[in-house]
């Protein structure tokens, strides 16, 4: 690759932060709010003009389940955000816990209020350009770019909530990306909203989701009239009056760490939204005959890129055995949701599930050590790029658990900022867990007998919780 030597040798420096959070998605918002709540001077950097990530700019139309089919398990700030949005959506039942619709404009303001009330300073439309480090794995500054130009931002502790582990990777952390054998990444989806939908016809007509074997999506595919529609994936929800949000179709070979790849996919996705509108208007005229494309996501719906290698790597065995950990910072009950290759998704029935879903009341723990890149001193990672195997990433990548992980990372960063050397690996997890519980986190203690059975040292203090 050709190189260019910049004339600029110095840029303005702002060095009065305790914690800097990069990425204002669900994990970033709760991380920043939690750090500021603990008294840390906190800056949140966001590349777009609004907070919320995939639930707002990405137009994902519904929350993944907040419950383990018995009770809400993503609590604390996660539950606060969830309940605040539900309260503003009159068509949503007050006791709804799973697959609850998202009205993105309302959610943007809820996230704004969350961080502002905590005392966070936010920088919108600000891109991370470079990460400055010392040889021992200590980040010394972030170089950012926005309308004010280039700037160096310095803190004691940094939280990477970029979704792609940009801060950690650029600082030299070890990571894996996609399928370790093939390099394949899960396909992306460009979400969109259709307006002027006939709600009565939509609610009383055939279920459009592909779980319904009589869904009109299969008629559309069989007709051959809309070859641009790739497969039967079509999640959809009423998100506002006469407005249906769609998480539909797959775009393969999209790499969110490659700016050219994402740029091309966004243009492809916008065209695909119009094709879906036309197909639905023809095959479901009562519902969508007068519908129009009201909006498309300004963010691509990316499911997978990098996963850091942390002090602990969450395994399939941990997931299958519903394992708990002495340093766990939240529970998770979402199923292993890996979207397949083009061949797998286009075959009859789509990609088969290999790992059985949890039953009511079942969940697994996520240890703090999955948030700590093992080769970096003052960086935490929260969100879909934590330390885990690819199968487990298919579960922990969704918004409810990202909200919970973010709050834990924020408290931990505030604690680390008070330590000599600001080493995130030396945070007292007992204090961290106590603070999380005080703020309402769901962290059930295991039975004493099972705690004694944690004796397998290869699991670094893991024990099973049922």
Automatic annotation (TrEMBL):
Residues 443-466 are annotated as: Disordered. Residues 456-466 have a biased composition (Polar residues). Coiled coil: none annotated. Keywords: 4Fe-4S, Iron, Iron-sulfur, Metal-binding, Oxidoreductase. It comes from the Bacteria. InterPro entries: FAD/NAD-bd_sf (IPR036188), HdrA-like (IPR039650). PANTHER family: COB--COM HETERODISULFIDE REDUCTASE IRON-SULFUR SUBUNIT A, FERREDOXIN:COB-COM HETERODISULFIDE REDUCTASE SUBUNIT A. This is FAD-dependent oxidoreductase. It comes from Paenibacillus tianjinensis. The lineage of its organism: Bacteria, Bacillati, Bacillota, Bacilli, Bacillales.
